[in-house]
Design brief:
alpha/beta, Arc Repressor Mutant, subunit A, 2 domains, SIS_dom_sf, transcription, DNA-binding transcription factor activity
């Protein structure tokens, strides 16, 4: 299946130069304008040379800017049709509503899977594996994901920490060392609380792994490794709800990779946890 322009841009975003990121931001925010205007008009809008836009299109795998514009136009037309089709109608029955929610979540997972990068997964797993302490940070809905990840990674060889209290999170962040790392989760990547935590973590010299749905967000710019979750939304279906499916899958993937990187220690940790839980349940 052909990867969309949006997904291509998001998958490459963190490796782009500042000028290229500005172009990417403009395209993501103004796809219709890009599709319907000349390269000269757009270069004036962005204050870049025509050749810069041409090279940007080539970097995404297109033969030139004309083919790039056509891809955006087709994508936007398909997106409009899909949105109308998937929108939950007032006369939909309960089963139809549920099926549309499932379809949306499936699409979210499929799109996020497309932009996962091997290098990012390897780097993140190595950072976690080599860290003395692994902290999970998030507030609001993202805090629930952080807690779920903490619960999961307790079964791994990693030494994990998590708190639901924001003030304690701030204090924990300030105590990190260059031998530690933090996973910061925020759907928008604009949460002032999470951004501040990430800044404190960086100031302490620790590594930051970011999970967000917005590649151009302030939080994403702080991360040593950034994973982008793609949201596919329908009416009355919150973005945070849709994105959490893909974010959970990213965290599950890191957990599984870490466990396989440290098989013997993983077996030992998992065995201890299982014995303890068994004693309580039986």
């Amino acid at each position: 299946m052909e990867v969309s322009v949006r997904l291509k841009i998001k998958s490459l975003y963190n490796g782009l130069s500042t000028k290229e990121q500005n172009i990417a931001d403009y395209i993501l925010e103004n796809p219709i304008s890009v599709a319907h205007n000349s390269i000269s008009y757009l270069s004036d809008e962005l204050n870049v040379a025509d050749s810069t836009l041409f090279q940007f299109a080539k970097k995404l795998g297109y033969s030139g800017f004309k083919e790039f514009k056509m891809a955006i136009l087709i994508e936007e037309n398909n997106f409009s049709t899909t949105s109308i089709h998937e929108k939950i109608e007032i006369d939909d029955n309960e089963l139809t509503m549920a099926q549309k929610v499932f379809d949306s979540n499936i699409k979210t997972l499929t799109n996020t899977k497309k932009i996962l990068g091997l290098d990012d997964l390897k780097k993140a797993a190595e950072i976690i594996s080599n860290s003395n302490l692994l902290y999970f940070f998030g507030v609001g809905g993202s805090g629930i994901l952080a807690e779920d990840a903490y619960h999961k990674f307790l079964r791994s060889p990693a030494h994990v920490r998590h708190s639901t209290d924001y003030h304690i999170q701030l204090m924990e962040a300030s105590l990190l060392t260059p031998q530690d790392c933090a996973i910061c989760i925020s759907h928008t990547g604009k949460s002032k609380e999470t951004i501040r935590i990430a800044e404190i973590v960086k100031e302490a010299g620790a590594k930051v792994i970011v999970i967000t749905s917005h590649a151009s967000s302030p939080l994403a710019k702080i991360g040593d490794v950034v994973f982008i979750s793609i949201s596919e939304e329908i009416e009355f279906h919150s973005e945070a709800l849709s994105s959490r499916i893909s974010q959970l899958s990213i965290l599950d993937s890191l957990y599984v990779i870490l466990m396989f990187m440290n098989k013997e220690k993983s077996k030992e940790a998992l065995s201890k946890v299982r014995r303890t839980i068994w004693d309580v349940k039986h």
